[in-house]
Structures are given as C-alpha cells and as structure tokens.
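Shipment paperwork, digital attachment
Item: protein structure file
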Amino acid sequence: MQRFPILQKQIDTTQTLMLVSQASGRSAAVHAGYELNLIQLGPPQPARDVTGPVVLLPNSAEPASDPLAGVDVRGAWVAALTNRGGRGLGIDFHTAQSALEAGAVGLIIISNRSDVEWRARVSGGYRVSVTLGEEPETDLAPPPGVVELRDQTAARAFGIDPAALRAAQRGGAQRLDGISVTLRVRERVVSARSAPNVIGILEGSDPRLKNEYVFFTAHMDHLGVASGEGSDCRARGADSICNGADDDASGTAAVLENAEAFSLLAPRPARSLVFMTVSGEEKGLWGSQYFTAHPTVPLSAVVAALNTDMVGRNWPDTIAAIGKEQSDLGATLDRVAAAHPELHLTPIGDIWPRESFYTRSDHYNFARRGVPILFFFSGVHGDYHAVSDEVAKINAEKEARIVRLVFYVGLEVAMAAARPRWDPASYKRVVEGAN
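Attachment content:
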C-alpha cells in the first residue's frame, strides 16, 4: 500500500498578486481580492511564479482567420479585451486556447465590468480546491494562469487605453513593448488527507530477469457522489451515485483477474509482474503521477506498462490499444491476437486522436518517463461520467476475452529475451518532449 498526500487548499488573497514591470523600471502590483480576479477553470493554480511578456490579442468584430499570425506567443501572457454583454463576457476562447497550445503561459482578461459586477466577482472568496499534495515536478511546465482585471487597472499597469483599443477594432495581435508580467499565487492548506495506490508483486522465476518488471495497471477511483453545479457527474432523479462500472471498475477487475491467473502459473514467468490499482486518476492521474515520482521498484527496470481503462462496453470484437505504434509492443499485440483467434478480438490503434485519450489515463505517466505502454480502451459511451454507468451494462463476456488478451501479451513480454523497444520518433516526441 502506497499512500500519497492530498491537500485541500484555498487561494490566499493577502499574498497573491500580479507584478507588472516596464522597461523604464516602473512597476505596479495588482492585488487579488479587489483588483485581480483569479479564474479557476479546473487545472490547479500555478505553484511557481509565471513570468512573461504580454501579447494583446486582436479586438475585432470580424476575427481574422489566423489572429496570432506574425506574433510569437511562446512564453508570453496573452491579453484579451472583452465586452460585458447580456450573456457575460465575450471571450474568444478558441483564440485563447490556440495561444496556450502555441506556448503562451497564461491569459489576462481585460473586462469592462461595472463596479457592482466586479465587487460581486471578487468579494465572494475562492472555492477550496483539492490537489496532489507535493511540490510540482520541475520537469513539467506549470499550468497556465488565467486572471481577470478591469479596464482602469489595465490602464494603470500596462499604460494602455482599453476603451480606445476596443473602439479601434484592431486587426492583429501586438506585443506590449517593455512589459513583463509575473503572477504569484499563494494558497493556504485547509486540510491534509491521503489516498492509496495498491500494489502487488509476483516475483519472476529467472534469477536475472526477475529484477525487471511488467506492470498491469488500472484506476480504482471514480467520481463518487454526484454534486451540484460544475460537477462532472450529475444526479438523475433520486440516483446520485456515480458508479463507474466501466470507468474504471472494468479495468480494476481486469488487473485482479490477471493477478489471480498469473499466480496459478507454474513455473512463474521469467520477469516479475506488478499489479497496481491507483487512486486519483479522475482528479488528474494523481496516483500514477505519485508512483512514477516515488517508484517502489526502479523505473529503469520497468519494461512495459499495460493499462486497462474502460474495457467493458462498446464493440464485442475490437479493442483499441492506444500507443501500439510507439513501440514494438504493438507488433507483439498483433502477433498474440493472431495466435489466439478464439478470442475474436482485433486490436486497433487510437481512432480518436483529437480527444487526447493518450494523455488521459495512467499509462501516460509511465510513457513520459520512458516506459513502453499499451492502453487497452473500448471508447466512451452515453453513460460516461454519469450515474447510469452501471454494472448491468457491462458486457462481461467481451471483457473476459480482453482480459485474456492482456494476459497473453503480458506473458509474452515477461518471457521474452529482450525488452520492448521504443520507436525512436515516438520516444523523442513522448519522452523527450515531456521533459
């Protein structure tokens, strides 16, 4: 049992601020709680200071096809002028998201809210957030900062006239010369708890290879009881339990069944096998992130990670193995599936690249640290993150065949003379690109 810390935290408005520096040496401090509104969109607030120049996004009734053309936003804050309307602030989220994907470090929303609206925004305090309770890894970029300030504050801090800029209907983005912004967020701990990763090891039979490991993983958490507004899982009538039968009791059952099956083999496989169910996947892959930062066996000795997440629904004769093209594990999987026609399963790759499923389950924390992976996944459905994700809807016969397929792949990897090998281009993109 490996427990990891979970903290409930709240933004400390007495220590949270935005520092604006100009080339002339003049600086201004914009304080949270009355001048600065930190927007909480889901990702954690940046734990380290976020610093960069400022790029003002275009303000036009007819957005350009490429509003960021000619402006490098990498490492910069992007600032967006917004107009208060009947349905809230008019924010071009598509352009803002494009800027963040291009390397921007954060978004500054410059709004023309009234005094009454603004006081209502900043006087209510900030909700308590739940985070993995350890320092962020230094090899990962901090999450972007998202803040809002009003016209008069932006005018004082940046030396601009927001009202005039709105009226000018500019056509392109522009960098504010000599301006640098640093966001410093400080949070106070409200409570400290912990959650478990559960790990079982079946020692290998080969004197040398038993010091190498094949992992079988799944997440054993789900969303719990449906909560109110903003919850991923909403109550339906009297039903408020988010069961998670497919997401991911199905994967957890797969790990347990394979643990039992491998324990009955005599002799045991050459390499050691690790069966791990993790917590906190739904919160941001917390359990696997903590494990790969604090491994109980050397990560350099982990030869493969086979992850099962949502394998109990959808097609009866197909299983997606995301990541199969990134290493020769894909060829191993295809060969094993062909050798076992009785399973009636065809492995395919990632057919949903725009959904970014590759980064959304626990195999990803192994992959970005250099471990070859396969992510067994049957896709989402109408009961995804809903109270209706119930055991009665699981296709147990189909899942049993998937579990057998994972068993045979794991056995082949555990018995092979050589470790699985990365595709060099994939390694460069996934491993070197993440560090």
